[in-house]
Specification:
Bound molecules: beta-D-mannopyranose
Structural class: alpha+beta
Distance between the termini: 46 Å
Number of helices: 15
Strand content: 25-35%
Strand order of the largest sheet: 26-25-24-23-22-31
Low-confidence stretches: 1-40, 45-55
Length: 850
Amino acid sequence: MAVRRQRRGAAGPPALPCRRPCRLSGGRAGVAICRAAPLLFLLVAAAGRVSASAAGGPEVHSLRGSWRLGNGNGSVVLRGEVPGCVHTALHRQGVIQSFDITSAIKEVNFVEVRFISAISYAAEQSRCHKAYSIPPACPPPVQKGECHANFIRKEQCSFSWDWGPSFPTQGIWKDVRIEAYNHYHLIYFSLTSFFVKSAQQWSLEIESVFDVVSSEPIAGLVTVNIPKLQTQQTFSVKLQPGEGSIVLLVNINKSSTVEAWWPNGHGKQTGYNMTTTFIMEAGHQIEKFSKAYFRTVELVQEPIPGSPGLSFYFNINGRPIFIKGSNWIPADSFQDRVTYDTLWLLLKSAADANMNALRVWGGGVYEQDEFYDICDELGIMIWQDFMFACALYPTDQNYLESVRAEISHQVRRLKSHPSIILWSGNNENEAAIANNWFSIPYADREVYIKDYVMLYVKNIREIVLAEDRSRPFIASSPTNGLESVKEGWVSQNPYDTHYGDTHFYDYSSDCWNWTVYPKTRFASEYGFQSWPSFSTIKKVSSTEDWSYTSNFSLHRQHHENGNDQMFQQIGHHFKLPQTTDPIKKFKDMIYLTQVMQAQCIKTETEFYRFSQSEIIKGEGHTMGALYWQLNDIWQAPSWASLEYGGKWKLLHYFAQNFFAPLLPVAYEDKGVLYIYGVSDFHVDHKLTLRVVVYAWSSLEPVCTLAKDGVTVKAQSAVPIHKESINYLLERCRNCTRKSCVITFCLVGEGGLQSPTNHHFLSSLKDAVGLQKSQLSASVSQQDDVYIFALQTTAIAPFVSLDVGSIKGRFSDNGFLMTEKKKLVVFYPWEPTSVEELEKSLTLTSLVDVV
Ligand code: BMA
C-alpha cells in the first residue's frame, strides 16, 4: 500500500506539525478520527443500507459490509470490509498486483473516515511531549518493530513484540453503526450478582445506561423476570434528560435453589434466562434477553501463619480455587480475521487441557464479546488486564480523557461476564519502574511514579471501582498487591514471593531443577520458547528457509538469543541432532524444542502445584499457575502451547496432564524421592499409589510398588510417598540412575485415575539401554473419531504423533511409551479419512533424533 513513510533511523519518522492531538471520537467505538494529513480514507455508501426499525423503535443504519478503501492521493482505491482493516483488504485483493474496482458501489450518501498513519501519529505525540521523555522510544531491534506504541491507544503489540510481527494496521476493525432515536436509547445493559450473607440470599444488580434526548424526564416501568428462579420484580423508573443510568436491585426468590456458576473442573456453568422489559411513557418498548449468572469472587490477601507477607488467592463462591491456565494474546495480527470459530477452538483447547483460567494480557486487545461468552460457557476464569504493557505512559489531559472513555466503556461492556474475576491495571509497568528497566535517573523517578499513580490509580482504578464493585482490582501484574499499595503503588520489589503474583523467566538454569523456581504466592507468567511444528512453518516458507540460521528463521525469531537459549536448554538433557541432512536436522530441532519446552513447563508447573499447601522457609501457599503463553499470533518460535491455526504443541498435551484435577507429582531433594498427591477435587479420596520402575532396555517393569489407602485431601497437595533414591535403586535390582526411569499414578474407585507421570533419574542424553524402537500405528474410524493403535518394540520416550496440517487433536501425545501397545484417539476438527491420516502420519520418539 502506498502509505509512504520513512524507515526509522537517524532521520526518524516524518515530522508532522505539532498540533492538538487526535481526538478519540465516538468513545465507545474507540475509533480514532484524525482529519489532518489524510493518508488513507474509507468511503461507505450508506444509502440502501438502512435497516427498517421496529415500529416506533430506533432507526438503525448498519455500516457493516463493503466499503471503498483508498489512499490520500487517490492512486489506490479498492473494496474493503467493515469490520475489517487495510491489511486484510489488500490481502483479499491479492495485494497491490492487479485489482478490479469496476464493481465499486456508486451511491449518493457517503461517510468518510480519514486516517493518519498510526506510526506517524504515535511519533508526533511523542515529539510533542516535550517536558520529559516517556520510554521506551522503540522496541529492541530484534523485534523489527515500530516506535512509540505507548503514545497511541491501539493494540500495543501491533508495533511488534517478542513473539509477534509489526503490523500497526488501521481501519474500522469492529462493527460500526448509526443509531437514530427520538426519545431515548439504551447504551449499556449489565448484570452483576452478589450474595448477601446476612439475608443468605442472592441478589442481582442491573444497570442500564440511557441517553435521553427529550427535554423532559421519561417515566416508565421495568419488569425483570427470571422464570426458573420464580423471580419477578417490577420497578417504576424515571429517566432524566442526558446520559445517565438506573440501577435496579433484584432479590432472588429465597425458596428457589440457585445454582452458582463454577470454573471448569469445579462444577457447572449454570446461567438463567432472564427477560427485562422497559415500558416507558414515550418512545418504544425495550425487551432485553440475557443470562443471569451467580458467582462471587474475592481476592484473599491476609496473613499466613508461619510466613511473612500476605496470601494471594481467589475464593470463588467462597471456595479457594487453584488457578490453572495460561496467558492469552491476540489470536491474529488482523483482528477482523478472528472469527467465533477461531476463538472457540482456542478456548475449547484451553478447557480440554484442564485449564480453568486465562489472563488476557495487557499488550493486546480487549477481546470481542464472543470471547467472554465462550469463557462463561466453558468455565474459564479471566484475569483481565487493561491494555498497557511493558512501558511508561503519558498522562496529559487528552490522553487521560481517551483512557477514561476506554476504561468505562470496557468495564460497562464486560462486567456481566461471570468469567471475569479480576481487573488488572497493566502488564509489568510497576516492575518497569521498580527495577528501572528504562534507566531513568534516580532524581527523575518521582515524575514517573506520579504519572503511574495518576493513570492506574487516580483514573483507571477510580473508574473501575465506581463502575463495578463485584470483582477485585489490582494495579499491575506482577504486583505485591496490598503491600504495593502500602508502598505508594510502586513496590521496591514487585516480584517478592511473599506477596501478590510473580512473573519468572530463566532460560539459562537447568529447567529440570525445581530449586531455581520462586516459591511464589501466584505464578502469573513463566515460560520457555519452542518452534511450531513443521507443517505450520511450511505454510509460510520454502525449502531454503528450513534451517535455524536462514533469513526466514531470523526474521521470525523476535526474542534476543531465542534460538541459542533453546539449544542451551536442550543441551542440558538431550543430544543435539548430528545428522547431515539439513531438513531432517531442522525437523529434529523442532521436535526437540517442543520436547524441551513441554518438559520444562511441566517441571515448573508441577512445582507450583505441589507448593500450594505448604510453607517452606516462609514461602509457599502458591495458588496459581498461568504459564506464558497460550496462543500464537503468527507462525514463529514463541512461548505458546497452541500454534497459529490451533494445532497443539507437545506442551499443550503435557498441560492436559500437569493440570489434571488429580495428579501425583515427584521431585527429588537431597537424594530423596518425594511423591505428592495433588487434588482439585472438593472431597478427600482414598487411593492407591502405583509406582512402576522400568529399565530403559525393557518393556517389562523392573519392580512395582502399590501403596493402598493413600489419602489425597481435597483441594491440596500432600506428600504421599518418600523414599531414598539409593534404596529405590537397590530394591529394583540392577537399576542405576542412568538405566532406569520411574513412572507412577493414582488409582481410585469407580474408574478414578490420574494420568501416569514420570520421573527421570538422569539426563536422557546419559540414559543407558535405550533401544531404537520400531514405532507403528494402524488407523481406524469409530463414529466421529479415529483410533490410532500404536505399537512399539522398545521403551520410547516422548512419542510424538503428527498428522501434518490435518486439523484436530490427539487424546494424548509426547508420552513415555512403556507398553507394547497403546490406543490414542484423534478428534478431527474438520472432515478427514483413514487414508488421509495414514498418509500424513509421522511417528517420532527421542531415539529417532540422530
Ligand atoms: C512477559 C510478557 C510479555 C512477553 C513475555 C515473554 O513478561 O508480559 O511481555 O512476551 O514476557 O518475554
